[in-house]
Amino acid sequence: MAPNTEQLTRPAVRLRSLTRSFAGRTVLDGIDLDLPAGQFTALLGHSGSGKSTLLRAIAGLDHDVTGSGRLTAPGRVSVVFQDSRLLPWRRVLDNVLLGTDGKDAAAKGRSALAEVGLAGRERAWPNELSGGEAQRAALARSLVREPELLLADEPFGALDALTRIKMHNLLRELWERHRPSVLLVTHDVDEAIVLADRVLVLDQGRIGLDLTIDRPHPRSYRDPLLGEYRERL
Ligand code: ADP
Ligand code: MG
Question: What residues contact residue 71 under an 8 Å CB cut-off, 6+ apart?
């Protein structure tokens, strides 16, 4: 059945008055936020500002939030963390396929691994992968689920600068090809500006700044436009 207009235009995420406290301390203070379908958004904020708390709430991993949450069905949400969370006792392809089924699951898993540059590594063990390769495998694991919403919590935070830049290109490419809504949590301002079309800053439990990265979009760390956006944050 063809999707109707409502399905095409409804946001992937719609938060209203989202609030979360820990032991009486308010971390998320009534957040209102829409993430349109297919948009690449980055979420910045200093350490402890509540970025991971917000991402977990959107992922449906936190049952103690108040207010209202996400629209994307839970089965269409994938989450990538700073560590790959691959199971060390399963080979790479089996990690990617975990929890999926269907007769072409294995073929889809292989093709997802090829897309992230890991063709030929299907039978490797997770501890044989570099940090960057493990995050590639984590991306393949989320891709294979064909997510409408991809949530990523500092997925490149533990990688060296050169690997990180390769991963930026990969993530942007995957986004262009599959068009999920992406919410990328990062504390790297340049990463946010180069990758995302919209940059949010979480501050004092609220979205303190909501900046659209207009076209032409800075696409590398050498682009002079980058500095202009940096100054607006
Ligand atoms: P960020 O990801 O921006 O660094 P977090 O969302 O991890 O920040 O944390 C925001 C605040 O909420 C921090 O002060 C943290 O200590 C607190 N916090 C997060 N999770 C818990 C928890 N499970 N129990 C108690 N406090 C928590
Ligand atoms: Mg965090």
Answer: 10, 11, 12, 13, 14
